[in-house]
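Retry 2 of 3 after timeout on previous attempt. Resubmitting structure tokens to design endpoint.
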């Protein structure tokens, strides 16, 4: 069944997407989120033209979001999701108020009606404790991974690489052998080829973690080059090759191509943890694991700054605020342990 739409709205949305991409430098992932938020607003108005906007529509949109349910879980949308959606739609109408054909119909003051109420906004932005694997839990999951087949070797080396680098899963999915320098112990996150955050190019040196991780990853790179005859332009963690055998598709050997996205990679890491009866931690949580480990092993502010740079952060504050959480329990322990 085709989705409903308003042709007039589609034209102005395309102009807005062009503005976000070319003037604001937003990537496709961000644009997709904007597009999804605007469709939600249109659904709440039964796809009325934006030119017929009235402040009552903003209030009804909030009610619509409150009643909406997640398509997969059937649960109510989180406060954070609704707050982000309202902000995206508000920014669109703020831009729209300055466009020809809309200036006389939408006032800038009208846009404020998309503001979330204070209570829901506080809930949406409240800091919450996020569970992440300890160094010991990660190593336990790693040790439990088999490494007999090519696929098992790849998966275990993938786990090791996340612990060595704390790299983002989207970047890892796009890495090729040419980005790895085993001699100097680093990976070159070249934004021309690698899907880095904000298209930033930087170097990550292997973190000083258990030697088993580096041993496993080094063996994998050697296996790719010497046994499978992979070259610089081939994937570091290749997906399965699809081939036709006796009229049936098989995925029983590695291709030389990268994954299209990080979905399968996240599944591999979650599976490694659940296989040893731990939470299904995602690879992004390794960044918290490593940030907290850095807090223990770094002996100076300069070392902590280098650790932060290794995670791809230009500012140490980013590492501290985003990846070094202090639980409420730990907060109490630290305060009670302080002396005058």
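Retry 2 succeeded. Sequence:
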């Amino acid at each position: 069944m085709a989705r409903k739409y308003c042709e007039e709205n589609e034209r102005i949305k395309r102009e807005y997407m062009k503005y976000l991409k070319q003037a604001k430098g937003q990537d496709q992932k961000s644009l997709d989120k904007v597009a999804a938020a605007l469709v939600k607003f249109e659904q709440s108005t039964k796809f009325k033209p934006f030119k017929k906007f009235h402040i009552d529509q903003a209030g009804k949109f909030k009610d619509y979001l409150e009643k909406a349910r997640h398509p997969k879980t059937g649960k109510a949308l989180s406060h954070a999701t609704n707050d982000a959606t309202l902000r995206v739609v508000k920014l669109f109408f703020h831009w729209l108020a300055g466009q020809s054909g809309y200036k006389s119909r939408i006032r800038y003051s009208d846009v404020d009606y998309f503001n979330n109420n204070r209570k829901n906004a506080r809930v949406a932005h409240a800091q919450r404790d996020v569970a992440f694997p300890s160094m010991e839990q990660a190593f336990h999951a790693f040790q439990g991974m088999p490494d007999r087949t090519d696929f098992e070797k790849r998966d275990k080396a993938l786990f090791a690489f996340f612990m060595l680098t704390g790299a983002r899963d989207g970047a890892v999915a796009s890495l090729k052998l040419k980005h790895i320098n085993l001699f100097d112990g680093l990976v070159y996150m070249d934004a021309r080829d690698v899907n880095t955050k904000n298209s930033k190019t930087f170097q990550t040196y292997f973190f000083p973690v258990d030697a088993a991780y580096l041993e496993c990853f080094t063996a994998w790179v050697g296996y790719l080059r010497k046994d499978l005859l992979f070259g610089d332009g081939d994937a570091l963690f290749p997906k399965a090759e699809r081939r036709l055998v006796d009229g049936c598709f098989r995925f029983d050997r590695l291709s030389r191509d990268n994954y299209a996205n990080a979905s399968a990679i996240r599944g591999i890491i979650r599976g490694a943890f659940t296989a040893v009866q731990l939470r299904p931690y995602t690879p992004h949580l390794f960044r918290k694991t490593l940030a907290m480990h850095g807090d223990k092993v770094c002996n100076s502010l300069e070392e902590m700054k280098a650790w932060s740079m290794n995670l791809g952060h230009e500012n140490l504050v980013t590492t501290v605020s985003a990846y070094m959480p202090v639980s409420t329990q730990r907060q109490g322990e630290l305060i009670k342990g302080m002396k005058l």
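Attempt log closed. Strands lie at 180-181, 186-189, 202-205, 243-245, 248-250.
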